[in-house]
Amino acid sequence: MITINPHYQKLQDSYLFATISKRVDAFQKANPDREIIKLGIGDVTLPLPSACIDAFRQGVDEMADEKTFQGYGPYEGYLFLREKIAESDFAKRGARISADEVFVSDGAKSDSANIQEIFSNDVIVAIPDPVYPVYLDTNVMAGRTGAFEAGRYQRVVYLDSTKANGFVPEPPSSAVDLIYLCYPNNPTGATISKSQLRSWVDYAHQNKALILYDAAYVAFIRDPSLPQSIYEIEGADEVAIEFRSFSKTAGFTGTRCAYSIIPKVCRAFDQSGNRRSPHQLWERRLSTKFNGVSYPVQKAAAAVYSETGQKQIRELGDYYLRNAGLIRREMTALGFDCVGGDNSPYIWVNAKMDSWKLFDLLLSEAGVVCTPGAGFGACGEGYIRLSAFNSYQNVEKAMVRIKSAL
Ligand code: MLT
Fold first, then answer.
1. DSSP assignment of 143-199, as one string?
2. Which of 186, 320, 386 to mutate to test the pocket of ligand 1 (most atoms within 8 A of CB)?
3. Domain 6-47+308-405 identical in fold to domain 53-305
4. pTM for the whole structure
């Protein structure tokens, strides 16, 4: 008899953005004449920068010529891309990361979902609440979370991110093994200071823990005092893995390219307490399960680091941040308490009511899609997330509609 993975039965509902998409589709079907503005899922709307498109085309042309054709690429990504990443995203900011510590992939979603596989099933996982649902759900699927009772998984240590702690939780008082952090944060848009991040790195050293640091939204940081990488903190290379993505940075949500950093000195332990290398384990996993990102896509990603590419991605980020600023100003003027939107494309809005209720109200009365905070965890109840990923014209229109609906 073929039996299913019993842990899948502990998952709640469907994946958050799939649920929202179904609700929006049903509304559109029932109201075919209504024009809907989507400020829900963080999906970019502007095209790829021309520097990336030119390199993408060149990569395709090379695939059409026997002399330059590429078959399987390196599992960890082409060196031409990894060298640029190490130099521009890390060395220039004083973080010592080398090209052979970079693993190119098809997305920060898959990397942050898959990484837990290399750790033992009995580790204690600390997960922020609210949180990008992938971190929690993949640990549920792996059987690490225990049963879901009274709204929470019993073996998970939740890191409540609330107004009281400025949406940046402190390290827990108990010992945990695997810690998920994401800054600029999805969904709250909050950022972390260097000293706050240092307290997490210290905690990981003291507790032999490991931090999974999701920096997918780093391109929106404009405050020069904020850390862009966890490796800007001394000693983080031993205790942290970092995820980055070209999705929001350069419009690659549909093109797919991202990377993870696993320093060679990063450590985990075997059952006898001996040091083991997550770098080696991830390399082993990758070569078994993955055949790399396509050559033209990696060419396109490498173009992000050209002078023109850097200028163009800065303009992309500025465009969405202008939207974010408008959303935050308008929602604040309507009497809502907001976080984020300054160094982040997300604005976390205190809904002053049940979060699904405000979701329904905005959809039916304004034709605007947001993400209900409750979908990100218990601490998200009473909040909604508005995303700045849309055209400025649509954001302006959405704000006018929200104003008249409320
Ligand atoms: C989000 O809206 O939270 C993100 O777009 C989801 C993702 O990046 O997978």
1. T-S--EETTEETT-EEEE--GGGTT-PPPPSS--SEEEEESS-TTT-----HHHHHH
2. 186
3. no
4. 0.97
Which class is domain 6-47+308-405? Answer: alpha beta
pLDDT tens digit string along 304-318? 999 999 999 999 999
Closest-lying ligand 1 atom to the alpha carbon of residue 41: 2
List, chain by chain if needed, residues with CB within 6 Å of any ligand 1 atom.
41-43, 109, 132, 186
Could you state, in order of their start, the residue ranges of all structural domains in the chain?
Answer: 6-47+308-405, 53-305
CA of 112 from ligand 1 middle (Å) equals: 12
Residue nearest (by alpha carbon) to ligand 1 atom 5? 42
How many percent of the chain have pLDDT more than 70? Answer: 100
What tens digit of pLDDT does each residue of 310-356 get?
Answer: 999 999 999 999 999 999 999 999 999 999 999 999 999 999 999 99
Residue 196, CA distances (Å) to 79, 231, 233, 370 in order: 34, 14, 10, 30
Give, using CA atoms, the residue closest to atom 4 of ligand 1: 42
- Residue 65 class from Cβ within 10 Å (0-12 exposed, 13-18 middle, 19+ buried)? exposed
CA–centroid distance, 2 to ligand 1, in Å, is: 33
| Ligand 1 pocket: which of 21, 38, 39, 41 to mutate (most atoms within 8 A of CB) | 41
Query: How far away, in angstroms, is 205 Cα from ligand 1 center?
Result: 30
Note the pLDDT tens digit of each residue in 91-107.
999 999 999 999 999 99
Per CATH, which fold does 53-305 belong to? Aspartate Aminotransferase; domain 2 (3.40.640)
Looking at residue 6, its pLDDT comes to 97
Distance 39 CA to ligand 1 centre (A): 12
What's the 208 CA to ligand 1 centre distance in angstroms?
30
| Cβ atoms of 285 and 293 closer than 8 Å | no
Q: Which two tokens stand for residue 39?
A: 């400020």
